Amino acid sequence: MKRPTIHDVAAAAGVSRGTVSRVLNGDRYVSTSARLAIERAIAETGYVVNRNARSLVTQRAGSVVIVLSEPHEKIFEDPNYSTTIRTSIRRLAERDMSLVMMIAGDAGDRDRVLRYVKGGHADGVLLLSTHAGDPLVDALDGMRIPAVSCGAVIGRENVIPYAACDERGGAQQMTRYLVEQGRKKIAMITGPMDTPGGIQRLEGFADVLGRKASKKLIEHGDWTRLSGESAMARLLERSPDLDAVFAASDVMASGALSTLRAAGRRVPEDVALGGFDDSAVAMSTHPALTTIRQPLAEIAEETVRILLDLIDGAEHVPSVTIPTMLIVRDSA
């Protein structure tokens, strides 16, 4: 059976081929009656847009590549990524654009990403969990392709626009709450110190505690549950009398909770525990986590909006920072 063409759609709708083409390309200057007739004709004929042909005309790929700068296994452990990806897919679909996901966890992965982008397969790049000093950022900047980051890229904030939560402010909220609960010896498990979440959440913690935020009460994690378990064990070994812990992610907090339970510490009676994200993990622990809600879907929406504005030709789009919220549950 012959595949329907744009000529078949035009004939069925009683309009010119050029009018059909304008509707398919999103032109707003087409009458409502003509647009409705074309939409009916597309449904009746079963016409499907030939993306290769469209790309030749529009010089656009019709897709965006999202680049996760983490090892493959982290995709499945951290629920934040699924929220960001799901929201991005939905927003891009509204523009009839596709999302292609690529991992850039090592040099070989980064080379594949750059070859893909250089090949003209994407109209823009959305960076996710990018670490400071990542050579991919400078390479993309040199290619002059529209790029945005979900969360700031440390040291490149003025080069790559971003949407993010108020990392520092959120950490201040949690630390202040633990102090208000009467906790005297508060420890922290940070994220990686080459990410904004790692650096700025530690800064917020120190803003509130001042000199009480001693190195003895700070351990570093990598956003994984295992790192939360091991960091908590080191903190208990050094400071067995600590009475509160702020983990910079819910996933790490769940690992810390496991270690506290194994050590015979009751949460929150002996040790109060706070997380960050308000992901699905926060409601799956026992007790449920007191945490900081970062509006992940809204952040993803803003990230895609910035990228689409850049793709559409905007020379400069300002970055966006979204407030967080303290969510009190049973762990603190």
TrEMBL record:
Residues 5-48 form the HTH cro/C1-type domain. One of its GO terms (molecular function) is transcription cis-regulatory region binding. PROSITE patterns: HTH_CROC1 (PS50943), HTH_LACI_1 (PS00356), HTH_LACI_2 (PS50932). Gene3D superfamilies: 3.40.50.2300, lambda repressor-like DNA-binding domains. CDD domains: HTH_LacI, PBP1_LacI_sugar_binding-like. Residues 4-58 form the HTH lacI-type domain. Keywords: DNA-binding, Transcription, Transcription regulation. The keyword DNA-binding applies. This is LacI family transcriptional regulator.
